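Blinded run. Sample ID left blank on purpose so nobody reads anything into the name before looking at the predicted structure. Input follows.
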Amino acid sequence: MEAPLALYRRYRPETFAEVIGQEHVTEPLRAALANNRVNHAYLFSGPRGCGKTTSARILARALNCEQAPIADPCGECESCRDLARGGPGSIDVIEIDAASHGGVDDARDLREKAFFAPVKSRYKVYIIDEAHMVSPQGFNALLKLVEEPPPHLRFIFATTEPEKVIPTIRSRTHHYPFRLIPPRLLSSYLADLCEKEGVAIEPAALPLVVRAGGGSARDTMSVLDQLLGGAGPEGVTHALATGLLGYTPDSLLDEVVDAFAAGDGASVFGVVDKVIETGQDPRRFTEDLLRRLRDLVIVGAVPDASTSGLIDVGEDLAERLTAQAARFGVPGLSRAADLFATGLTEMRGATAPRLLLELICARVLLPAADDSTDGLMVRLDRLERRLSVTGVPTSDAPSPRLEAAQTVTVTAPAQAAPAPAAQASAPQAPAAPTQPAPAPAAQAPEAPAQPAPEQPAPAQSAPSAPAAQPQAPAPQAPAAAGGLGLADVRRLWPDIVEATKLKRRVTWIHLTQHAQVVAVDEKTLTLGFQNAGARESFVGGGSPEIVRQAAIDVVGTDWVVEAIVDPGAQAGGGAPAQPAQVPRRAEAAPAAQPAPDPQQPAAHAPAAPAGAPPGAPSEPPPWATDDQPPPEPPPESAVAPEPAPSRAIDAAREAIAPTRTGPVAPAAPAPDSASADADVDRDDPEMEDAQISSTELLQRTLGAQIIEEIKHD
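Blinded prediction complete.
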């Protein structure tokens, strides 16, 4: 039994309709044939294996078809059968390989035979393949014949280098440039061929075959023919294509990309050692890694690149690319791609490619040694990512933005902490008849006037430390994917909730009123809802996808968001309930201070002694005793304006704004009692559905404390 013909010969097109990826050439040729407006000479140019010679044979069949003029050969007449796939050929259609017949003598012999009429066809057609190999003298010998041929003569020149055809010949032909076949079109064509051959092929193997073919139909079908010949009962698998074609396995590329993202030099150089020990070419590994970095750069810029067709990868690989791009960061990806592209050029002809590969990896791992703009952007991106996760900058000299963020996150707990301590020490305060007792101690018996649940227990209060010293971080839960545990996610939860507000207000309302983070693992973020109705409204409105996108923007992790019913969930809680803090406008006053006189302005509160820590009880004024009356209040013009509480919020927003990839809403001005309700649109349908007052919305959005203005007669 004879072996079958090569795949590209068995499936060679016989009509212009079967030629793929060259519609810009085949359609005009079909129109010219149908209208009987065929030229006497044609020049087909383009890359190898894209259909130039095949189209020349189809054109010769259509010219000599008995039903001509016709766009496509009929395939039934004698001429069509002779020139068909596997046919004996026609004596009136002569193919000449110019690589071996490009001299002057060959051109003279062709010129002498061309004047004889065809034997049994309408035209005598000369197909001159590799026409750029004809010498200038040979072209000059053919010039007169090509310019003024006899009526029965047609010329078709096919070449990969049309610029080498002398201009006098090119000017006398109709030039049709062929192109490489698009990858997606070639992938679908190969899948149809495998179905006709009865051999299964994994979808992940098709991009490797197309990449090996380089856009050439003939080369791609030769590669596929090789894989079909070596396929087992399971067909053409991804592992078979990777090993046979010499590509780097995806698992190795995933390992080295994750190591680069984590800054793990040991793992990076371990992968390089694996490449050498397994006998792979360092140049091929560098090229494959550069292609992976290219895909990651595109995914970082366009998250839905895999579904929109910008990159041709499988669904599982697309998910891995999204996670890798989020961990690596766009500045780092761009810099690494530039380094590997430059290094790949340097590797050509190098005697020590492994050494060059290791040097490239070292430069990628050390952005601090790169004083260029790219290195600076990578270091800045790493600092912002680390700050967004830990909340503490790593530099000994933080920038003003980081200092502002620390001021907001540290000062408020430190100022609220002395209140319980002052209450606890009140019974021990000495009472001297000649010295007035401290105000908090004198008023301690009246402290139960506040509701008991709102007073923080001593065990739950913040540790007594100076306000200028940041508190030590609490022990965290076991880390999940990307080093984030449940405690980390709960700490970042307010930023995620704020990001959902920029995408959809309804989702933000659900999260602030009904949801709490209850669990997190490598792939799933679980939210607990107080009741089934809130959960169904959250899921039915498409809010899980909004939360997923917000988590990618803020944290850089692609979680599957699941919603469960948890009666113990606290509304809007990312972390367990914390003790109620003193309002920001009243931070300067002790927690146990008695309620001020309604007729006394808040600006005349007694000042704390010099050197006392923030929040410490101040010395009572002389008029606090029964000996002296209280002084008259000064005029309103003499009262210094109190700083707006929104300045700390603005500083915090400015500090965390660069760590987000999505748009950030501008900071709203601090509301007062007269304009708080006016700044909120009462016709907002989302606010009406959530049944939130304007004052509560300002408190949840900006953390503002609304204090009624006291007017004096």
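Unblinding after everyone has recorded impressions. The mean pLDDT is 74.
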